[in-house]
User: What shape does this take?
Amino acid sequence: MTSIDDRLSEIRWLRNEIWRCRRLLKTDLSGAERKGIEKRLLEQLSAFERLLSTTFPLALNPKVNSTKSTTPPPSGSSEAPIENAAMASSSSFSNSIGS
Assistant: This one.
């Protein structure tokens, strides 16, 4: 069993790698280098989100912390459609890097 300290250390490492990739993408890169870094960044974001959801399952439940609601609920309804928070952040990132 992995201790919380080990998981937090891995979260910090992934966060730093994500920052490093984002910094590299701001530099002048060849097409192949850019594609490789973008692919690596998406893999790291996915691993980061997966690790966060397993380390803090209650705090990061996508149904609790949705990033956006598509439409307001119909009158008389207590629920609104929601989007998976992990997918929203990944797709937002993909749009921001132009993939």
In short: Residues 77-91 have pLDDT under 50 and may be disordered. Helices lie at 4-25, 31-55, 85-97.
